[in-house]
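Table S2 (text version). Query chain:
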Amino acid sequence: CRAYEREAEIHLLVKKLTEETPNLILLGETGSGKSTVLVEAVRQAELHLKKAEAETDSSRPPRRYWLTSGS
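Corresponding structure-token output:
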């Protein structure tokens, strides 16, 4: 895991990204790791979805995730 000691937060985000239609806001101090946690969660979610799509042979278009900044 690339986000050191943030496995619980990443797991929660992956679950939201893969099982729900999420709208997420990550709040925290500058340098707290918000972007790192989100990037890792999206990476894991995309791997999870690719694996699930390969197993089900779905014709549904793949999900895409974007990283944006509120600033």
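Notes on Table S2: The chain has two helices and no strands. The two ends are 27 Å apart (CA to CA).
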